[in-house]
């Protein structure tokens, strides 16, 4: 009815959008409808940023210029499946090379 408001709830499962995300960290949701009397299309888009897991970094020994420094990286996989082909890259000011680590 005119001026009426209705709320519709939808659940999007990871399996439904998993193959479409790739390296992106966002989903674009679009709702669209047509006004029956006029044929006018009404649409609204919303970009939803996906939360990435937090990383905890800890130095395991004092950091000394010119020497290797062991670092512990801890994170939790929030997905309902195992991670495969995952790499962890450490880089920063003064680091001469990127050191990828396959997880």
UniProtKB/TrEMBL annotation:
Keywords: Transferase. It comes from the Eukaryota. GO terms for molecular function: protein-glutamine gamma-glutamyltransferase activity. The keyword Disulfide bond does not apply. This is TGM1 glutamyltransferase. The gene is Tgm1.
């Amino acid at each position: 009815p005119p001026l009426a408001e209705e709320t519709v709830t939808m659940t999007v499962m990871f399996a439904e959008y998993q193959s479409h995300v790739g390296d992106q960290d966002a989903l674009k949701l679009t709702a669209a409808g047509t006004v029956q009397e006029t044929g006018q299309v009404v649409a609204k888009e919303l970009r939803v940023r996906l939360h990435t897991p937090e990383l905890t970094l800890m130095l395991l020994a004092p950091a000394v210029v010119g020497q290797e420094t062991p670092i512990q990286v801890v994170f939790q996989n929030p997905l309902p499946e195992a991670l495969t082909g995952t790499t962890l890259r450490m880089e920063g000011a003064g680091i001469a090379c990127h050191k990828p680590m396959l997880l």
